[in-house]
Amino acid sequence: MTALPPPSPSRDLRLDFFRGLALWWIFLNHIPNNDFSWLTSRNFGFSDATEIFVFISGYSAALAYRRPMLQQGFGFTTLHVWRRCWQLYVAHLILFLFYTAQIGYVAERFGNPMYMEEMNVTRLLDAPHLALLEALLLEFRPANMDVLPMYIVLLGVFPPLLWLLLRRPGWAFGLSAALFVLVRLTGINLPAYPPGSGWFFNPFAWQFLFVLGAVCALRPEVLQGLARWRRPLDVAAVLYLLLAGLIVASWQLPALERWVPEALAEWMYPIDKTSLDVLRLLHFLALAHLAMRLIPRHAAFLHSRWAWPALICGRKALEVFCLGIFLSFAAYLVLIEFGGSLGLQLAVSVAGIGAMVGLAYVLCWYTARAARMAATSKEAKAR
Amino acid sequence: MSLRLQILSPSSCRLRWRHRLRALAGSLLLVSGTACALAGNDPAAAVVAEAPCGVPTGLLQHNPPLRNVAKALNGKRLKVLVWGTRSTAGAGTSGTDQAYPAHLRARLAERYPGVALEVEVLSQPGQTATQMVRGLQPEVIARKPDLVVWQTGSADAVRNTSLQEFGRAVSRALKTLRGRNIDVMLMDMQYGPYSDLLANFRPYRGYLWWASRQEDVALLPRYQIMELWEEQGRFDLGTEDRKLQRVNADAIHACLGDLLGWMVIDATERAAGPTDDQR
After folding, report:
1. Residue A96: what pLDDT?
2. Residue B277 above 60 pLDDT?
3. How far apart are CA A276 and CA A200, in angstroms?
4. For the segment B104-152, what is each residue's pLDDT rounded down to a tens digit?
5. Is A41 in a helix, a strand, or coil?
C-alpha cells in the first residue's frame, strides 16, 4: 500500500471506488449459478453494474481527454482515443480466444448432444473460421462479452462528441438526448449476426448514459444547480428505489406479485435492457444521487483500508475488467468440475475478487515505479 | 429487465440453500417470513398438487383455457403443431419417436380416443425467434393447426440478439396466431449444468414469461423444471457417459411430453367445462 503514490487531490475517489465495485459485481454476476451474485445491486432494483460502468466510463473519458483536446487539438486527441480503442479491441479478441477454448474444452469433456446441437455450439466448432470472422467484426459477441464492444464503439466516436461538448455542451447533450429518444421510439440498433438482428447493448441508446457521465464531469456546475432541490430529490430517489425494490422482489416472491397492479405491470414490462429502459436509467440516477449524498467527495471512508481494494480496481479498470471476465469463465469451470456447493461458490467468488485486487495492486505499483523512473531519468538528462 | 427466477412451489417454505439466499435478497426489502406466511394462507397455494415427474403445479399455474382445442375436440378432430428448434426434433434422444412431441401425442391419444388426432413437428434448427416468425404464415398458419406449441429462445440467447427484437417477434407472433383462432403454448430453453456458459438465458426467459402473461398463453418453463429435476437428483445432466446421456434425454423428453399433455388436457377441460376458471 505504501508503494502507491497518493492520488492527486483533484481526483474524485468515488469514481474509482464505485467503478471497482461495479467490476466486482460484473464478475460475480457473470458466474452462472453463483448464489453470491444475489448480493449485487441488480437484485434490488432495475439497473445493474452495466449502468455504473458506462456512466463512470463516460465521466472519466471526459476528464482524461479534456486536456489533450484543449492543448493538443482535435487530430492528436482522436488518435489518442483510438489507441485506447485498439487496446480494448485486442482485449476483446483475447477474451474471445479464452471463451472459444473453454467451449472447446466443455464440448470435448461432456459433449452431450442434447445441449450441443440445440445450442448450435456445433456451428462454432465446425466452422470456427466463420465465427472468427464475425468476432473480428464485433458481430459475434458471446454471452457476457458484449460490454466491451459497446464501450469500443462509444469511445470510437467520442472525439467529435468531446469537441462539441467543450464548445457547445447544450447542443451535444441535446443531440445525445434526441438520439436516445429516437431509439426509444423506433428501436434502431447496430446490426449483428444473423442478419436482421441487433446488438444486445444498443450503443445508440447507451451513449446517452455515457454522455451524461461526460457532462457531469465537464459541467459540475449543472449538478450544483440542482443543489437547491436536494431535499425533494432525496425523497424522490428513496421512494423510487423502494418501489423498484418491491417490484424486483415480486419476481422472487409470488406472494408479492399479486400486489403489483396489472395496469402497472402492463405499462412497465418488459423493462428493456437492450435500449436502456427509462425505468433503468431513472433507477441508476436515483442510486447515483443517493450514493453521492451519502458519501461526500472527501469522505474519510474513501481513504480507509476498507475502500482501498475497490479503489485500486477502479483505477485499473480495463485490465481488471478483462481479468474478471476471464475469471468468471474459470470459476464456472471449477464449479462444473467440483460441484457447485455453496462453500465452493464462496471460495471462487472470494478468490476471484482477490485476484482482481492483486492484479490492480501489481499494476499500480508498476506504473508508479515506471513513472518515477521516467522522472528521474529526465532529471538526469536535464543536468 | 423483467424476469422471473427460479421459484419453487409458492407454498413451499422449505427452500434449499440457493433459494434461501435468494429469499434473503428479497427479505432485505421485506420480512420474508411475512411473505411465506402470506403464501401459506393463500387458498390456491394450499393445494399441494403435483404434475407428472414431480413438478409442483405452482410452476404451471399460468395455463389459460384452450378454447380452440376444446372446439376442435367437439368436432372429433385435433391438430397440434409443435414448432421449435433442434430439441423439438429430439436432439440427443435415441430417435424422434422418443422426443417430447411423440409423448405429447400419446397422452392426448390416451385421453381423447376416437378423435382424429394429428401432431405435426416443425423443427427449424438454430433459428432465432425473429427468423422463425418470418415463416409464420407459410409454415405455421398454412398448416391450419388448432394448437401451436412454440419452443423458442435458445438460438436468440446463444446469439445474444437484441432483447427488444426478440420480445417484439414473440409478441407479434402470439398476437397473430391468436387472431387466427389458433391456441398457443410457449416453451422456453433447456437447462443444463453448463448451458449458462454458452448463453445468458435469464433476460430471454424473462421476456418469454412476460409475453406469456401479456398475450395470455401458457408457458412451460422447461428451464426451471429441468433445473429442479437436477436439484432433486432425478437426472444427472452433467454426466460424461454417452449412453447415460441418451437414456437421460429420452427420459427428460418423456417427462416434458407428459407435462405438456397434462397442461393441454387441464386447460382444455377448463375451457370445455361449464364454469370458466377465472384464474
Report:
1. 85
2. no
3. 11
4. 999 999 999 999 999 999 999 888 899 999 999 999 999 999 999 999 9
5. helix
Give which of B205, B207, B98, B217 is closest to B147, Cα–Cα.
B217
Residue among B10, B30, B240 whose CB faces A254 most closely: B10
- Do the Cβ atoms of A198 and B164 come within 8 Å? yes
Asked if B29 and B124 sit in the same domain, the reply is no
Return all residues near A225 (Cβ < 8 A) that are at least 6 apart: none
For residue B278, is it within any domain? no
Domain carrying residue B127: 55-272
- Position B11 scores a pLDDT of 34
Q: Which three cell numbers stand for residue B63?
A: 395455463
Q: Which DSSP symbol is given to B215?
A: T
Q: In angstroms, what separates the C-alpha of A46 from chain B's closest C-alpha?
A: 7
Of the listed ranges A124-133, B51-60, B184-193, B229-238, the least confidently predicted one is A124-133
DSSP run (H or E) holding A299: none
Contact predicate B219/B210, CB 8 Å: no
A 22-51 residues with CB below 8 A of B? 32-33, 35-36, 38-39, 43-44, 46
Residues B86 and B99 sit within 8 Å (Cβ to Cβ):
no
Residues B128 and B161 in one domain: yes
Decide if pLDDT at B26 tops 70. no
Give the whole-angstrom CA distance, residue B38 versus residue B7.
16
Where is average pLDDT lowest: A69-73, B130-134, B194-198? B194-198
Q: Which chain A residue shows the shortest CA-CA distance from B17?
A: A342
Residues B228, B247, single domain; the answer is: yes
**A contact residues 140-179, partner B, Cβ 8 Å cutoff:** 141-144, 146
Residue given cell 452495466 in the structure block: A50
How close is the nearest chain B Cα to the Cα of A2, in Å?
Answer: 37
Q: Is residue B12 part of a domain?
A: no
B107, B144: one domain:
yes
Q: Do A197 and B86 touch (CB under 8 A)?
A: no
Question: Do both B85 and B122 map to the same domain?
Answer: yes
B9 belongs to a structural domain: no
Same domain, B188 and B83: yes
Q: Do A112 and B245 touch (CB under 8 A)?
A: yes
Name the closest residue on chain A to residue B247, using Cα atoms. Answer: A114
Asked if the ipTM is above 0.90, the reply is no
In a mutational test of the A interface, the residue from B8, B28, B197 whose CB has the highest number of chain A CBs within 10 Å is B197
Tally A–B CB contacts below 8 A. Answer: 207
Do the domain assignments include residue B125? yes
Can you give the CATH number for the domain in which B185 is found?
A: 3.40.50.1110
Minimum CA–CA partner of A247 in chain B: B2
Let me know whether B92 and B40 are in one domain.
Answer: no
Half-sphere exposure for A139 (CA within 13 Å, toward CB): 13
Total of domains in chain B: 2
Domain check: are B208 and B226 in the same one? Answer: yes
Candidate ranges A118-122, A200-204, A334-338, B38-42; pick with highest mean pLDDT = A200-204
